[in-house]
Amino acid sequence: MNLARVRAIGGQAALFLMAFALGKGIAFFGPLLLSQIMNIQDYGTAELSLSVGTIGAQVLSLGILGAIPQLVLIRKEDRVQDLLFFVVASIGVLGLAAAAVAYAASSDLLYAFAAIAIVGTGAQLTAATYYRTIGRRYRTLVSDNLSLYLFLAVGGVVFLMLGRVPLGPVVLGYGGVVLGVTIFSFIALARTIRPHFFAAHADARRMGFFMMVNSLVYFTIVNSSRVLIGYFLSVEAVSVYSVCFRISIAIFLVHQLVGTAFYKTLYEASAEWFDRYFVILLAVTMVGASVLLTTFELYGAVLLPAWAGYMDQMSGVLPITCMQVIWWVSLALLEFRINRTLISKQATLWLVACAGLMIVALATLSALHLLTLATAALVFACTLFLALQAQLFLLRRNRVPLPKTQIALFAPLVFLVPAFFLQS
Protein backbone atom coordinates (compact mmCIF):
# COMPACT_ATOMS: atom_id res chain seq x y z
CA MET A 1 0.00 0.00 0.00
CA ASN A 2 1.59 3.30 -1.10
CA LEU A 3 1.71 6.51 0.93
CA ALA A 4 -1.05 8.19 -1.07
CA ARG A 5 -3.38 5.28 -0.35
CA VAL A 6 -2.55 5.40 3.36
CA ARG A 7 -3.26 9.12 3.44
CA ALA A 8 -6.56 8.61 1.61
CA ILE A 9 -7.69 5.93 4.07
CA GLY A 10 -6.56 8.06 7.01
CA GLY A 11 -8.43 11.04 5.63
CA GLN A 12 -11.61 9.02 5.17
CA ALA A 13 -11.32 7.63 8.70
CA ALA A 14 -10.76 11.10 10.16
CA LEU A 15 -13.74 12.48 8.23
CA PHE A 16 -15.97 9.67 9.47
CA LEU A 17 -14.82 10.21 13.06
CA MET A 18 -15.57 13.91 12.77
CA ALA A 19 -19.03 13.21 11.33
CA PHE A 20 -19.66 10.61 14.03
CA ALA A 21 -18.58 13.02 16.77
CA LEU A 22 -20.74 15.82 15.35
CA GLY A 23 -23.85 13.66 14.98
CA LYS A 24 -23.57 12.01 18.36
CA GLY A 25 -22.59 15.31 19.97
CA ILE A 26 -25.80 16.92 18.74
CA ALA A 27 -27.83 13.93 19.95
CA PHE A 28 -26.09 14.10 23.35
CA PHE A 29 -25.93 17.82 24.07
CA GLY A 30 -29.04 18.92 22.16
CA PRO A 31 -31.62 17.45 24.58
CA LEU A 32 -29.61 18.68 27.58
CA LEU A 33 -29.60 22.19 26.13
CA LEU A 34 -33.30 22.05 25.33
CA SER A 35 -34.02 20.87 28.87
CA GLN A 36 -32.59 24.19 30.08
CA ILE A 37 -35.11 26.30 28.16
CA MET A 38 -38.26 24.14 28.37
CA ASN A 39 -40.22 23.89 31.58
CA ILE A 40 -39.86 20.57 33.36
CA GLN A 41 -43.40 19.39 32.59
CA ASP A 42 -43.08 20.04 28.84
CA TYR A 43 -39.63 18.47 28.64
CA GLY A 44 -40.79 15.36 30.47
CA THR A 45 -43.80 15.09 28.16
CA ALA A 46 -41.55 15.37 25.10
CA GLU A 47 -39.12 12.71 26.36
CA LEU A 48 -41.99 10.39 27.21
CA SER A 49 -43.54 10.89 23.77
CA LEU A 50 -40.29 10.17 21.95
CA SER A 51 -39.89 6.95 23.95
CA VAL A 52 -43.41 5.84 23.04
CA GLY A 53 -42.57 6.66 19.42
CA THR A 54 -39.58 4.31 19.45
CA ILE A 55 -41.63 1.37 20.69
CA GLY A 56 -44.76 2.13 18.65
CA ALA A 57 -42.87 2.42 15.37
CA GLN A 58 -41.24 -0.96 15.95
CA VAL A 59 -44.66 -2.58 16.39
CA LEU A 60 -46.31 -0.90 13.41
CA SER A 61 -43.46 -1.85 11.07
CA LEU A 62 -44.80 -5.44 11.32
CA GLY A 63 -41.31 -6.89 10.89
CA ILE A 64 -40.74 -5.51 7.39
CA LEU A 65 -37.65 -3.56 8.43
CA GLY A 66 -36.10 -6.66 9.99
CA ALA A 67 -36.41 -8.46 6.66
CA ILE A 68 -34.70 -5.76 4.57
CA PRO A 69 -31.07 -6.82 5.27
CA GLN A 70 -31.99 -10.44 4.52
CA LEU A 71 -33.69 -9.48 1.25
CA VAL A 72 -30.89 -7.20 0.05
CA LEU A 73 -27.75 -8.92 1.35
CA ILE A 74 -28.73 -12.59 1.22
CA ARG A 75 -31.38 -12.84 -1.48
CA LYS A 76 -29.75 -10.03 -3.48
CA GLU A 77 -33.08 -8.39 -4.21
CA ASP A 78 -32.74 -4.84 -5.48
CA ARG A 79 -36.41 -3.88 -5.34
CA VAL A 80 -37.31 -3.08 -1.74
CA GLN A 81 -38.10 0.64 -1.98
CA ASP A 82 -41.83 -0.01 -2.28
CA LEU A 83 -41.76 -1.99 0.97
CA LEU A 84 -39.92 0.86 2.71
CA PHE A 85 -42.26 3.58 1.44
CA PHE A 86 -45.26 1.46 2.44
CA VAL A 87 -43.93 1.18 6.00
CA VAL A 88 -43.52 4.97 6.31
CA ALA A 89 -46.86 5.73 4.62
CA SER A 90 -48.87 3.23 6.66
CA ILE A 91 -47.32 4.28 9.98
CA GLY A 92 -47.89 7.91 8.96
CA VAL A 93 -51.61 7.44 8.36
CA LEU A 94 -52.14 5.47 11.57
CA GLY A 95 -50.03 7.79 13.73
CA LEU A 96 -51.48 11.07 12.45
CA ALA A 97 -55.04 9.74 12.71
CA ALA A 98 -54.36 8.59 16.28
CA ALA A 99 -52.90 12.01 17.13
CA ALA A 100 -55.99 13.80 15.81
CA VAL A 101 -58.33 11.51 17.74
CA ALA A 102 -56.27 11.77 20.94
CA TYR A 103 -56.15 15.57 20.84
CA ALA A 104 -59.85 15.88 20.02
CA ALA A 105 -60.74 13.53 22.89
CA SER A 106 -58.62 15.04 25.65
CA SER A 107 -56.60 18.05 24.37
CA ASP A 108 -53.62 16.44 26.13
CA LEU A 109 -50.40 17.05 24.19
CA LEU A 110 -48.80 13.92 25.65
CA TYR A 111 -51.01 11.50 23.71
CA ALA A 112 -51.01 13.60 20.54
CA PHE A 113 -47.23 14.03 20.50
CA ALA A 114 -46.67 10.35 21.29
CA ALA A 115 -48.73 9.37 18.24
CA ILE A 116 -46.93 11.89 16.03
CA ALA A 117 -43.56 10.73 17.36
CA ILE A 118 -44.41 7.20 16.20
CA VAL A 119 -44.59 8.57 12.65
CA GLY A 120 -41.27 10.39 12.94
CA THR A 121 -39.55 7.38 14.47
CA GLY A 122 -41.04 5.12 11.78
CA ALA A 123 -39.36 7.25 9.12
CA GLN A 124 -36.13 7.22 11.14
CA LEU A 125 -36.02 3.43 11.52
CA THR A 126 -36.87 2.90 7.87
CA ALA A 127 -34.15 5.25 6.61
CA ALA A 128 -31.56 3.88 9.04
CA THR A 129 -32.32 0.27 8.09
CA TYR A 130 -32.02 0.96 4.39
CA TYR A 131 -28.85 3.06 4.50
CA ARG A 132 -27.12 0.67 6.92
CA THR A 133 -27.99 -2.26 4.65
CA ILE A 134 -26.58 -0.66 1.51
CA GLY A 135 -23.48 0.64 3.34
CA ARG A 136 -24.12 4.40 3.27
CA ARG A 137 -22.28 5.29 6.48
CA TYR A 138 -22.85 9.05 6.52
CA ARG A 139 -26.53 8.80 5.73
CA THR A 140 -26.79 6.14 8.45
CA LEU A 141 -25.29 8.58 10.96
CA VAL A 142 -27.98 11.13 10.12
CA SER A 143 -30.90 8.73 9.99
CA ASP A 144 -29.97 6.96 13.24
CA ASN A 145 -31.23 9.96 15.24
CA LEU A 146 -33.53 11.53 12.67
CA SER A 147 -36.56 11.90 14.96
CA LEU A 148 -34.47 13.47 17.70
CA TYR A 149 -32.80 15.86 15.24
CA LEU A 150 -36.24 16.93 14.02
CA PHE A 151 -37.40 17.54 17.59
CA LEU A 152 -34.27 19.62 18.33
CA ALA A 153 -34.54 21.58 15.08
CA VAL A 154 -38.20 22.44 15.64
CA GLY A 155 -37.44 23.36 19.25
CA GLY A 156 -34.63 25.65 18.06
CA VAL A 157 -36.89 27.38 15.55
CA VAL A 158 -39.60 27.88 18.19
CA PHE A 159 -37.01 29.37 20.57
CA LEU A 160 -35.79 31.80 17.92
CA MET A 161 -39.35 32.89 17.18
CA LEU A 162 -40.75 33.09 20.72
CA GLY A 163 -37.73 33.31 23.00
CA ARG A 164 -38.99 30.23 24.86
CA VAL A 165 -40.02 26.68 23.93
CA PRO A 166 -43.63 25.83 24.84
CA LEU A 167 -44.60 22.30 23.83
CA GLY A 168 -47.61 23.21 21.67
CA PRO A 169 -45.70 24.89 18.80
CA VAL A 170 -43.08 22.09 18.92
CA VAL A 171 -45.80 19.47 18.43
CA LEU A 172 -47.32 21.47 15.56
CA GLY A 173 -43.95 21.92 13.83
CA TYR A 174 -42.92 18.29 14.29
CA GLY A 175 -46.36 17.17 13.11
CA GLY A 176 -46.20 19.35 10.03
CA VAL A 177 -42.89 17.82 8.98
CA VAL A 178 -44.03 14.21 9.46
CA LEU A 179 -47.24 14.99 7.56
CA GLY A 180 -45.07 16.09 4.64
CA VAL A 181 -42.99 12.91 4.94
CA THR A 182 -46.15 10.80 4.89
CA ILE A 183 -47.48 12.52 1.77
CA PHE A 184 -44.09 12.10 0.05
CA SER A 185 -44.07 8.40 0.96
CA PHE A 186 -47.46 7.86 -0.66
CA ILE A 187 -46.28 9.57 -3.85
CA ALA A 188 -43.05 7.54 -3.88
CA LEU A 189 -44.98 4.32 -3.19
CA ALA A 190 -47.23 4.96 -6.18
CA ARG A 191 -44.14 5.33 -8.39
CA THR A 192 -42.23 2.28 -7.10
CA ILE A 193 -44.89 -0.28 -6.25
CA ARG A 194 -44.40 -3.63 -7.99
CA PRO A 195 -46.96 -6.08 -9.35
CA HIS A 196 -48.06 -8.55 -6.66
CA PHE A 197 -46.87 -6.13 -4.00
CA PHE A 198 -48.97 -7.62 -1.21
CA ALA A 199 -47.48 -11.07 -1.82
CA ALA A 200 -43.99 -9.58 -1.46
CA HIS A 201 -45.14 -7.69 1.64
CA ALA A 202 -46.50 -10.89 3.23
CA ASP A 203 -43.25 -12.71 2.48
CA ALA A 204 -41.16 -9.94 4.09
CA ARG A 205 -43.52 -9.80 7.05
CA ARG A 206 -43.17 -13.54 7.70
CA MET A 207 -39.40 -13.31 7.36
CA GLY A 208 -38.96 -10.35 9.65
CA PHE A 209 -41.65 -10.89 12.26
CA PHE A 210 -39.51 -12.77 14.78
CA MET A 211 -36.64 -10.35 14.22
CA MET A 212 -39.08 -7.55 15.05
CA VAL A 213 -40.19 -9.32 18.23
CA ASN A 214 -36.57 -9.75 19.29
CA SER A 215 -35.77 -6.09 18.57
CA LEU A 216 -38.98 -4.96 20.22
CA VAL A 217 -38.26 -6.80 23.45
CA TYR A 218 -34.72 -5.43 23.45
CA PHE A 219 -35.99 -1.88 22.77
CA THR A 220 -38.69 -2.29 25.40
CA ILE A 221 -36.24 -3.27 28.12
CA VAL A 222 -33.84 -0.46 27.23
CA ASN A 223 -36.19 2.36 26.20
CA SER A 224 -39.34 1.76 28.21
CA SER A 225 -37.78 3.10 31.39
CA ARG A 226 -39.10 6.64 30.82
CA VAL A 227 -42.54 5.33 29.93
CA LEU A 228 -42.68 3.21 33.08
CA ILE A 229 -41.42 6.07 35.27
CA GLY A 230 -44.15 8.27 33.81
CA TYR A 231 -46.74 5.61 34.59
CA PHE A 232 -45.63 4.68 38.11
CA LEU A 233 -44.22 8.06 39.26
CA SER A 234 -44.69 11.40 37.45
CA VAL A 235 -43.76 13.42 34.39
CA GLU A 236 -41.42 15.44 36.61
CA ALA A 237 -39.62 12.22 37.52
CA VAL A 238 -39.35 11.43 33.79
CA SER A 239 -37.56 14.74 33.28
CA VAL A 240 -35.03 14.15 36.06
CA TYR A 241 -34.38 10.57 34.96
CA SER A 242 -34.11 11.57 31.29
CA VAL A 243 -31.38 14.11 32.00
CA CYS A 244 -29.43 11.54 34.05
CA PHE A 245 -29.88 8.94 31.32
CA ARG A 246 -28.86 11.40 28.59
CA ILE A 247 -25.66 12.17 30.49
CA SER A 248 -24.93 8.48 31.04
CA ILE A 249 -25.59 7.59 27.42
CA ALA A 250 -22.26 9.15 26.47
CA ILE A 251 -20.83 5.79 27.56
CA PHE A 252 -22.79 4.07 24.79
CA LEU A 253 -20.97 6.12 22.15
CA VAL A 254 -17.90 3.93 22.69
CA HIS A 255 -19.87 0.86 21.66
CA GLN A 256 -21.49 2.63 18.70
CA LEU A 257 -18.15 3.76 17.32
CA VAL A 258 -16.43 0.40 17.79
CA GLY A 259 -19.45 -1.56 16.57
CA THR A 260 -19.72 0.58 13.43
CA ALA A 261 -16.02 0.43 12.60
CA PHE A 262 -15.34 -3.22 13.51
CA TYR A 263 -18.65 -5.01 13.06
CA LYS A 264 -17.17 -7.73 10.83
CA THR A 265 -14.25 -8.36 13.22
CA LEU A 266 -16.54 -8.63 16.24
CA TYR A 267 -18.91 -10.96 14.45
CA GLU A 268 -16.21 -13.32 13.14
CA ALA A 269 -13.92 -13.31 16.20
CA SER A 270 -13.28 -16.41 18.27
CA ALA A 271 -14.90 -16.69 21.69
CA GLU A 272 -11.49 -16.36 23.40
CA TRP A 273 -10.65 -13.13 21.53
CA PHE A 274 -14.11 -11.72 22.18
CA ASP A 275 -13.84 -12.55 25.89
CA ARG A 276 -10.59 -10.58 26.20
CA TYR A 277 -11.92 -7.71 24.08
CA PHE A 278 -15.06 -7.45 26.21
CA VAL A 279 -13.09 -7.04 29.44
CA ILE A 280 -10.95 -4.28 27.91
CA LEU A 281 -13.98 -2.38 26.57
CA LEU A 282 -15.78 -2.78 29.90
CA ALA A 283 -12.77 -1.27 31.69
CA VAL A 284 -12.82 1.68 29.28
CA THR A 285 -16.53 2.30 29.85
CA MET A 286 -16.05 2.06 33.63
CA VAL A 287 -13.35 4.74 33.47
CA GLY A 288 -15.60 6.87 31.28
CA ALA A 289 -18.47 6.52 33.74
CA SER A 290 -16.19 7.53 36.62
CA VAL A 291 -15.12 10.66 34.73
CA LEU A 292 -18.77 11.51 34.04
CA LEU A 293 -19.74 11.13 37.69
CA THR A 294 -16.79 13.20 38.92
CA THR A 295 -17.47 15.96 36.38
CA PHE A 296 -21.14 16.06 37.34
CA GLU A 297 -20.41 16.32 41.05
CA LEU A 298 -17.89 19.13 40.51
CA TYR A 299 -19.59 21.14 37.77
CA GLY A 300 -23.17 19.84 37.43
CA ALA A 301 -24.80 22.92 38.91
CA VAL A 302 -22.73 25.15 36.62
CA LEU A 303 -23.33 23.15 33.44
CA LEU A 304 -27.04 22.55 34.14
CA PRO A 305 -28.19 25.62 36.11
CA ALA A 306 -31.88 24.98 35.38
CA TRP A 307 -31.60 21.72 37.33
CA ALA A 308 -29.87 23.19 40.39
CA GLY A 309 -32.86 22.35 42.58
CA TYR A 310 -32.63 18.68 41.60
CA MET A 311 -28.88 18.17 41.97
CA ASP A 312 -29.11 16.14 45.17
CA GLN A 313 -31.65 13.76 43.64
CA MET A 314 -29.71 13.50 40.37
CA SER A 315 -26.47 12.76 42.25
CA GLY A 316 -28.08 9.61 43.63
CA VAL A 317 -29.66 8.54 40.32
CA LEU A 318 -26.76 9.23 37.93
CA PRO A 319 -24.45 6.44 39.23
CA ILE A 320 -27.30 3.95 38.73
CA THR A 321 -28.02 5.13 35.18
CA CYS A 322 -24.27 4.84 34.45
CA MET A 323 -24.39 1.25 35.68
CA GLN A 324 -27.52 0.72 33.57
CA VAL A 325 -25.87 2.04 30.39
CA ILE A 326 -22.71 -0.05 30.95
CA TRP A 327 -24.85 -3.19 31.09
CA TRP A 328 -26.79 -1.94 28.05
CA VAL A 329 -23.49 -1.71 26.14
CA SER A 330 -22.66 -5.22 27.35
CA LEU A 331 -26.03 -6.56 26.19
CA ALA A 332 -25.50 -5.01 22.76
CA LEU A 333 -22.05 -6.60 22.50
CA LEU A 334 -23.29 -10.05 23.47
CA GLU A 335 -25.83 -9.79 20.65
CA PHE A 336 -22.91 -10.37 18.26
CA ARG A 337 -22.31 -13.79 19.83
CA ILE A 338 -26.02 -14.60 20.15
CA ASN A 339 -26.62 -13.89 16.45
CA ARG A 340 -23.53 -15.79 15.33
CA THR A 341 -24.54 -18.82 17.44
CA LEU A 342 -28.07 -18.70 15.93
CA ILE A 343 -29.88 -18.77 19.28
CA SER A 344 -31.75 -15.45 19.02
CA LYS A 345 -35.12 -17.18 19.39
CA GLN A 346 -34.08 -18.66 22.74
CA ALA A 347 -32.59 -15.33 23.79
CA THR A 348 -35.86 -13.56 23.01
CA LEU A 349 -37.80 -15.85 25.35
CA TRP A 350 -35.40 -15.01 28.17
CA LEU A 351 -35.65 -11.29 27.37
CA VAL A 352 -39.44 -11.48 27.56
CA ALA A 353 -39.17 -13.15 30.97
CA CYS A 354 -36.79 -10.41 32.18
CA ALA A 355 -39.14 -7.67 30.93
CA GLY A 356 -42.04 -9.32 32.75
CA LEU A 357 -40.06 -9.49 35.99
CA MET A 358 -39.14 -5.81 35.59
CA ILE A 359 -42.79 -4.75 35.44
CA VAL A 360 -43.74 -7.03 38.34
CA ALA A 361 -40.91 -5.57 40.46
CA LEU A 362 -41.99 -1.99 39.70
CA ALA A 363 -45.64 -2.76 40.46
CA THR A 364 -44.71 -4.50 43.70
CA LEU A 365 -42.51 -1.64 44.91
CA SER A 366 -45.22 0.85 43.97
CA ALA A 367 -47.87 -1.12 45.88
CA LEU A 368 -45.58 -1.18 48.94
CA HIS A 369 -44.90 2.58 48.57
CA LEU A 370 -41.19 1.87 48.16
CA LEU A 371 -40.85 3.05 44.56
CA THR A 372 -38.68 6.13 44.13
CA LEU A 373 -36.78 7.38 41.12
CA ALA A 374 -33.58 5.76 42.44
CA THR A 375 -35.22 2.38 43.12
CA ALA A 376 -36.90 2.47 39.69
CA ALA A 377 -33.54 3.11 38.02
CA LEU A 378 -32.07 0.24 40.03
CA VAL A 379 -34.83 -2.09 38.80
CA PHE A 380 -34.03 -1.16 35.18
CA ALA A 381 -30.31 -1.79 35.75
CA CYS A 382 -30.93 -5.13 37.44
CA THR A 383 -33.18 -6.17 34.55
CA LEU A 384 -30.30 -5.65 32.11
CA PHE A 385 -27.93 -7.54 34.42
CA LEU A 386 -30.37 -10.46 34.61
CA ALA A 387 -30.74 -10.45 30.81
CA LEU A 388 -26.93 -10.55 30.48
CA GLN A 389 -26.69 -13.55 32.77
CA ALA A 390 -29.41 -15.32 30.76
CA GLN A 391 -27.52 -14.68 27.51
CA LEU A 392 -24.25 -15.93 29.00
CA PHE A 393 -26.06 -19.05 30.19
CA LEU A 394 -27.40 -19.69 26.68
CA LEU A 395 -23.97 -19.15 25.13
CA ARG A 396 -22.32 -21.46 27.64
CA ARG A 397 -24.96 -24.13 26.99
CA ASN A 398 -24.15 -23.83 23.27
CA ARG A 399 -20.41 -24.26 23.87
CA VAL A 400 -19.48 -20.58 23.70
CA PRO A 401 -18.16 -19.92 27.22
CA LEU A 402 -17.09 -16.38 28.14
CA PRO A 403 -15.62 -16.79 31.66
CA LYS A 404 -13.83 -13.42 31.86
CA THR A 405 -16.99 -11.64 30.75
CA GLN A 406 -19.06 -13.51 33.34
CA ILE A 407 -16.87 -12.21 36.17
CA ALA A 408 -16.25 -8.71 34.78
CA LEU A 409 -19.97 -7.94 34.54
CA PHE A 410 -20.14 -7.68 38.33
CA ALA A 411 -17.69 -4.74 38.33
CA PRO A 412 -20.29 -1.98 37.60
CA LEU A 413 -21.95 -2.80 40.93
CA VAL A 414 -19.28 -0.58 42.46
CA PHE A 415 -21.36 2.42 41.35
CA LEU A 416 -23.94 1.53 43.99
CA VAL A 417 -21.53 2.98 46.56
CA PRO A 418 -21.72 6.61 45.33
CA ALA A 419 -25.42 6.13 44.58
CA PHE A 420 -26.06 5.20 48.22
CA PHE A 421 -23.97 7.92 49.84
CA LEU A 422 -24.93 10.72 47.45
CA GLN A 423 -28.61 9.81 47.74
CA SER A 424 -28.34 10.07 51.50
Detail the poorly predicted runs.
none
Strand content: under 5%
According to DSSP, the number of beta strands is 0
List the total number of helices: 19
Structural class: mainly alpha
Could you estimate the helical fraction of the residues in percent?
A: over 70%
Number of domains: 2
Biggest sheet overview:
none
- State the separation between the terminal residues, measured CA to CA: 60 Å
Order of helical and strand elements: HHHHHHHHHHHHHHHHHHH
Protein name: O-antigen/teichoic acid export membrane protein
Transmembrane segments: 12-34, 54-74, 83-105, 111-134, 146-165, 171-189, 209-233, 245-265, 277-296, 316-336, 348-368, 374-395, 407-423
Organism: Inquilinus ginsengisoli
Keywords: Membrane, Transmembrane, Transmembrane helix
What does it look like?
The chain is built from 19 helices and no strands. The radius of gyration is 22 Å and the shape is globular. α2 (40-60) packs across α11 (235-248). It starts with a helix and ends with a helix. The mean pLDDT is 83. It has helices at residues 3-37, 40-60, 64-74, 81-106, 109-133, 137-143, 146-162, 167-192, 197-223, 225-232, 235-248, 252-261, 263-268, 271-303, 311-340, 344-367, 373-397, 403-408, 416-423. It has two domains: 21-223, no CATH class; 241-424, no CATH class. By secondary structure, the chain is mainly alpha-helical. Helix content is 85%, strand content 0%. This is O-antigen/teichoic acid export membrane protein.
